[in-house]
Amino acid sequence: MNLTLRIWRQKGPEDKGRMVTYPVNDVSPDMSFLEMLDVLNERLILDGEDPVAFDHDCREGICGMCGLMINGDAHGPQRGTTACQLHMRQFTDGETIDIEPWRASAFPVIKDLVVNRGAFDKIIAAGGYITAPTGSAPEAHSTPVAKANADAAFESAACIGCGACVAACPNGSGMLFTAAKLTQLSLLPQGQPERYTRVIGMVDAHDEAGFGGCTNAGECTVVCPKGIPLNTIGRLNRDYLAATTKGAGNTPGS
Amino acid sequence: MTKTRSPIRSNVGLKAVMAVTGILLVLFLIAHMLGNLKVFTGETSFDHYAHWLRDIGKPLLPGVWFLWILRTVLVVAVVAHIWAATVLALRARAARPVKYAHRKKVRGSYAARTMRWGGVIILLFVIYHLLDLTTGTLNPVGTEGKPYGNVVADFAPERWYVTLFYTLAIVTLGFHLRHGAFSAFRSLGQQTPRGERRARNAALVFAVVLCAGYLVVPFAVLTGLVS
After folding, report:
1. Which residue of B has its CA nearest to A8?
2. Any CB–CB contact under 8 A between B107 and chain A?
3. With a threshold of 0.90, does the pTM exceed it?
4. Domain-embedded: residue B1
5. Domain range spanning residue B181?
6. What confidence score (pLDDT) does residue A193 get?
7. With a cut of 70, which residues of chain B have pLDDT below it?
8. How many domains does chain B divide into?
């Protein structure tokens, strides 16, 4: 396959940045998208040029590091797939592919396609944990959990924090991430003691980071590589409204 | 975390404000539509109903107090709805300062995509509508106390552009409600996938029924069914 790539190049946070066109030839349809970028980078290095910086780590779709806007789709055209698990057979010979970083004021570009997702860490630090020392994994039967709750919590826990929801959201909202990280705890017994202080802390951190609000457009759940459902945000809304009207009697985290 | 802002100003709180004020306005829309349909019961009955609106609450409330209380509630709801929408829209704009070079159309429904501009169109229509049929300023007849005659004169076949604008505004309202009604449930804590399907279907049916209820009046005048 021969392809034309239009890639966002930006030397650093202060650089204005621009789309640069690169032809890439002899691409195997069995390559992953990141392997195709590796091929380009090897050539750029041999030519003495600066290689394209992009985030990646496990390359098996579970770490949440990779994240590229490919032809206007977060993680590319294939649903339920991270950019690293996307294969070139999803594209056609001679195609022009636009590659951009996640765009959000809370995710400033560090270089080229790499963005700083530290805003997500701030949301987690504001309550995405439990303070009880849980020790090693307990006997599974000792704390009964309703099957529906366990399933929904597990669904939320699948979030890898890649930021595709923010990238795709027309409002630049991080609500799907925040809701997933909230409900994986709020649906389980271990998450109950801090349930209401957690939601206030996490929503405050979300808003302070400069993310937009949710308008239930549903774009996030379409691009989410883990398929976190949109109704997760409804669980967050319910907890937040309960927390603010009840005056949240439970103790805050450390 | 330092809690410096009131919960109502959070993104979730503002959405709750939009949901509650939106529900108030929807309740008014239902009552207004049912009142409009009285046009099919004839001139005397329709005008009598319009006069009764001014007398609700008598003798507990003197004069047209009920009407003014209702108007105050509606104005507060409209202002709060627009305020919350504006704050959220500005935050959304600030959340993405650099636009994508390659951006697909948002995959969500047409209704979801057009909420903001649709809202502006509806606001402009409401202003025109008040000047037309409440104050009578823009009405060809504008006789006070004779709403039946005003409505019939308004949607007369030679004033087809009024009917066209009315139809466009109502269809815009239908789209606004299709996403807005579902969105209100979600903002107030609708949280299960099954409930989501139900809420979406209910919102769609409701929007269609409301549109039909509003559109039947001008088209009845246009076709001479009501004259």
Report:
1. B101
2. yes
3. yes
4. no
5. 7-97+108-222
6. 86
7. 1-5
8. 1
